[in-house]
Design a protein that fits this description.
The structure holds two protein chains of two kinds. By secondary structure, chain A is mainly β. Chain A contains one helix and three strands.
């Protein structure tokens, strides 16, 4: 197992490569951007919550 | 959870995120940033991208402040997640990051619950260590 995960799927225990996403931020009612690098630098845990699509049901 | 950022991610644009959050009453209380992964690049990075549909499976991932992936859970489209279990795993991770010699058993729920300190003495004696 390498230390940093490949592009084909991170394994538990590996380092996640930096990523950046455009966001909508309901708390501000505005658009924004978020990056793993910024979250790490702020000492934050990051929880990613993937789901298939907006306007779906579960 | 001041020390954690929850980010919801789908392949929708940020504009659709806005419309959905604004229109769906179930989402009125949502405060999390809603990430837009229109290329599926992030979903592929975590192995949850479905090439047949262009959609992402219900994957949940906890990343430590050092950038290490600590938990991975993937559900198919038709099964929702249990938030209590996600929060339990998050609390356990945070505890274990501080108390690195400990382990949280299956019954561990929150700080103050019994943890185990694996040692030579405990081998074959987990039952006793659990106070049973």
């Amino acid at each position: 197992m390498s230390d940093t995960c490949s592009c084909l799927g991170c394994n538990v225990g590996e380092t996640v490569p930096d990523f950046r996403l455009e966001t909508y931020e309901p708390a501000k009612g505005d658009f924004g951007e978020i990056s793993l690098e910024t979250l790490r630098n702020n000492g934050k845990w990051t929880i990613l919550f993937f789901y298939p699509a907006d306007f779906t049901f579960v | 959870m001041m020390d954690a950022e929850i980010i919801t991610v789908s392949s929708d644009t940020k504009f659709v995120h806005l419309a959905w959050q604004r229109d769906e009453m179930e989402l009125k209380g949502v405060k999390f940033p809603m990430g837009s992964d229109t290329t599926g690049k992030l979903a592929r990075m975590f192995g949850v991208y479905d090439e047949n549909t262009g959609l992402s499976l219900r994957g949940t991932f906890i990343i430590s402040p050092e950038g290490k992936l600590m938990n991975s859970e993937v559900n198919f489209y038709n099964l929702g997640r249990n938030i209590d279990e996600l929060l339990r795993k998050f609390r356990a991770n945070r505890h274990l990051a501080e108390y690195t010699a400990e382990a949280c058993p299956a019954q561990w729920r929150s700080n103050g619950d019994l943890t185990l300190k694996p040692s030579a003495k405990m081998v074959g004696k987990v039952h006793e260590a659990m106070g049973k």
